[in-house]
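Before relying on records like the one below, remember that each one covers exactly one chain. Contacts with other chains, cofactors or solvent are not represented anywhere in the record.
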Amino acid sequence: MSVDTETTADPTASPLRYFGSEVRLERERLGMSRAELGKIACCSYSLVAKIETGERVPTLDFARACDATFPHANGRFERFWPLALRYAFPPWFRPYAELEWTATVVRMFHPQLFPGLTQTPDYARAVLRTGRPTNLDDLVTARVERQRILTREEDPARLWLVLNEAVLTNTVGDTAIMRQQLIRLRELAETPQHRVQIIRRRGWQYGTESGWSLLSFAGGADVSHVDGFPRGYILADPSDVATAQDAYDLLKAVAEPPDETAKLIDSLLEDRYS
């Protein structure tokens, strides 16, 4: 049995390096090759190698595969995974990602794009690629893994999403990518715990030029996050949050009822993205 034993860099340099070094140590303890671990975790040899050296962000499924494979893991890979994941985000975004991870209700508005919390992997890749990042794969992984707050076993977050109609017709990538993204949105719209509303294009477009969100928690006050360039920012001052809450109420009032969303998406799928 071949075993990969190359030395990695300082494992304390980052959460990703530490996570990867622990994977390597446990794998080598079992005399297991990277290819064998990759087969168990449903990923490639090269991805296992990059995770072990801290070059790629692991998915939660990978962390769980490690816990199931290594006899003395005791769930530590899944427990440590959120910290490793946050390292993939830009430093300015990490505080928001930590807040979002504990939110019970997420209210979002966007005038031009599907928010990251709702994007398919292909749509996310097409959006993120425009910035020509050097860590595109990690950014896509991190964005998609954020969505687990909507499906987690304990207290999944509720999503309330308001979008301008332009979001549904602003082609990102190609027709196939948009079709899958609209199908994803339809699934969210038809999930009982979520609400999706569309502001139809009738001349004047409501809302702001940038997207923003409101987070609510089981304990503690709401906060708002505003997308921006080159970075977004969090608003926690009660007066700012109250203004955001009032603005979101107005957006919901001018948008179509949630029950109309699936019908609109079906029309676009047939007429524009078939």
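The radius of gyration is 21 Å.
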